[in-house]
Amino acid sequence: MAESSPFGVKQVARVHRVWILLLLLVLALGTGVAAGYVRWRRPHVELQAQLVALRPPTVSALNDARPSAVIDLKDAEAALLVRGQWRYMETARDGVAAGGVTRPPEVGWTVVRPGALDDRGRAGRGRAAWYRIDVVIPERLGDLETRASTVVFELAVDGYAEIWVDGKLVPVLGTNGAFLVTGTSARNRVLLTRGPRAGQRFEITVLVVDRALAEPPVDAFSIRSATLDFVGPPETRSPAGEIVRLDPAFDAIVAPTARLEKVAEGLRSGEGPVWMPDGHLLVSDFSANLIYRWNADDGLTVWRTKSGYAGLDFSRYPLPGANGLAVDAQGRLTIAEHGRRRIVRLERNGDVTVLAASYQGRRFNSPNDLVYRSNGDLYFTDPPFGLPKAEARELPFSGVFRWRAGRLDLLTSDLGGPNGLAFSPDERLLYVAEGNKGALIRFDVQDDGTLANERVFFPMRADGLKVDRRGNVYAAAAGVTVISPSGKILGVIRPAEGLTNLAWGDDDDRTLYLVGGRGIYRIRLEVPGSGTWRHPKSPASSTLRYRTLSSRIVSRARRHPPQPGDGRN
User: Fold this and answer.
1) How large a percentage of the chain has pLDDT more than 70?
2) Using an 8 Å Cβ cutoff, are 65 and 299 in contact?
3) What's the CA gap between 198 and 138, in Å, rounded?
4) Residue 351: CB partners within 8 Å, gap ≥ 6?
5) Mean of pLDDT over the chain
6) Measured distance CA(306)–CA(337) in Å, rounded
7) What φ, ψ does residue 62 adopt, rounded to 5°?
8) Residues 281-315, buried b or exposed e (16+ Cβ, 10 A)?
9) Which of 152, 165, 434, 468 is the S-S candidate for 527 at Cβ 3.0 to 4.6 Å?
10) Nearest residue to 464 (alpha-carbon basis) of 419, 511, 498, 526
11) How far is the C-alpha of 36 from the C-alpha of 29, rounded, in Å?
């Protein structure tokens, strides 16, 4: 056998060292590239998360639904399809006030061709005008049967405007646009009807005032666009989660044909849903510091901003906004304000009444959830979950409190993290979700409303709680776990994301609304909810008493009637 050459061995060793150096260089470059990618990717991921948070809500008839047919009411031929005829009446602002406006005028109108609308409203500052069009719903519009549609009046106008339908102006607290027009040439949509009848007639009247208060514009006001949108039936959506049936009794609660539906998205941290008497859902977003309003017509809109806190130290608050919401027997909303650490009630005129902010001179931790008893007593929990960073709590405990006509009582201080709470149908039991113990706690409610006999009802960590009229308990966590009054799991309603809270809704309380991180879900049930109070549906009880422009100038005119020579006659 030949002897190996020393030169060959050294050369092989040198080659090995070169390969090792190349390998180390590749690893170093790879690490640098990976780190660079992470640094590059992080802001993109954060931006994507922000965009998801800003994603528009699910399509609704008044929001972004694509219409099946559009009638341009400024086009003469198109207006004839709904027998549309424009009328016009111009007046001064004080002329409107002098009439004591409670409904649009009935006489004094001038007929105007649709193409001549742009020639109107070119007066100077201080002018107002009424526009009116009567429309009749046809049986068909092309291939569309109108009875299967939703009819929406859409208006874009320069200036301030109020839209009256069939002589009525009914603005609702928190609505964006609609009856009270907002924004120069902005789109404003008013629902006329769902499932119209052929021959059904609508009287649409618009009060327009010049848009400039300090300086007169070139065009004082003008209708830029006016249409009737006929929105066809919505497309059937695929289920937004699963229903797990663990007991045959669950079928009597959730029918085999029931479907879980996602109705809106775009929240950051949804909480505290409550159904309001005038037919919409309110949802708090305590991360975004907002309260949202949702219904099938408007979709998701901001209803109240700075819902829980505003201050120079805002960045210290992880969850500054409102948390739990509840409505009393008079239809007034009650809010647990996390950041301000108090319980407030929103009056019908928009005023805020502070019900409670401290106990024995010490501020609350962060009021979380709340529920009304039928006698008007308000029960709420006060865990430390929303306290600002590095701030010591003033109360050394997490309490369950009762507010009764201005008096505050501490009912228990034995729970470490009380969260959601709900009464049994007969109000003899109170259920509280206890976060620290990871259990649902049940108390007996004494005749005087105090609590006794604390015991574990079910070993489960949950957030919001609700009870139906049969006494079944609904606990929000990864899904909604439905538990019988005896403590047996019947089934789980599980949407695609974790949940925080839930509410009964719709006119019959048989729709269960669920909120989680970003979405709002609903499902129809066979059993109605318990603990909801029904109120007469009237403008006095269910809507904010807006002081519209017409009402303000009427009031001003009555306080300061025109005098000879003041230019107002």
Assistant:
1) 74
2) no
3) 5
4) none
5) 80
6) 10
7) -95, 0
8) bbbbbbbbbbbbbbbbbbbbbebbebbbbeeeeee
9) 468
10) 419
11) 10
Q: Could you tell me which of 364, 312, 362, 371 has the C-alpha nearest to residue 338? A: 364
pLDDT of residue 36: 53
Range from 131-135, 173-177, 226-230 carrying the lowest mean pLDDT: 173-177
The predicted structure's pLDDT at residue 171: 64
Structure tokens at 428: 């003899």
Poorest-pLDDT segment among 124-128, 505-509, 516-520? 124-128
Let me know how long the chain is: 569
Q: How far is CA 35 from CA 22, 29, 38, 169, 199, in A?
A: 20, 10, 5, 60, 68
Nearest to 278 by CA among 238, 348, 235, 331: 331
CA–CA gap between residue 161 and residue 131 (Å, rounded): 10
Contact 468, 530 (CB under 8 A): yes
Q: How far apart are CA 443 and CA 289, in angstroms?
A: 33
Q: How far apart are CA 553 and CA 471, in angstroms?
A: 53
Reading the block at residue 84, the tokens are: 């549309």
Q: CA-based Rg of the chain, rounded to a whole angstrom?
A: 31
Max Cα separation, the chain? 133
Q: Residue 93 — very low, low, confident or very high, per pLDDT cuts 50/70/90? A: low
**d(C-alpha 203, C-alpha 84), whole Å:** 10
Which region, left, alpha or beta, applies to residue 411 given φ > 0 means left and ψ of -120 to 50 means alpha?
alpha
As a dihedral over the C-alpha atoms of residue 518, residue 519, residue 520, residue 521, rounded to 10 degrees, the angle is -140
pTM: 0.75
Rounded to whole angstroms, how far apart are CA atoms 238 and 226? 35
| Stronger pLDDT, 291 or 97, i.e. the higher one | 291
Is 260 a residue whose pLDDT tops 60?
yes
Q: How many CA atoms lie within 13 A of 256 on its CB side?
A: 2
| Tokens of residue 183, six digits | 């924004």
Q: Which amino acid is at 421?
A: L
Helix (H) or strand (E) holding 32: helix 6-53
Sign of CA dihedral 374, 377, 382, 388: positive
Task: Tell the residue number behind the tokens 């660079």, with chain if given.
Answer: 36
SS3 per residue for 99-154 = CCCCCCCCCCCEEECHHHHHHCCCCCCCEEEEEEEEEECCCEECCEEHHHCEEEEE
E-strand spans in 506-555?
Answer: 511-516, 519-524
Give one word for 25, left, alpha or beta, with left for phi > 0 and alpha for psi -120 to 50: alpha
Model confidence band, residue 408 (pLDDT cutoffs 50, 70, 90): very high
Instruction: Sort 264 into a burial class: Cβ within 10 Å, 0-12 / 13-18 / 19+.
Output: buried
The tokens of 50 are what? Answer: 């922000």
What architecture is domain 257-530? 6 Propeller (2.120)
Domain layout of the chain by residue ranges: 69-234+547-559, 257-530
pLDDT of residue 123: 47
Take residue 220 and report the two structure tokens written for it. Answer: 């004082």
- Is 69-234+547-559 CATH 3.40.50.2000? no
**pLDDT at position 504:** 96
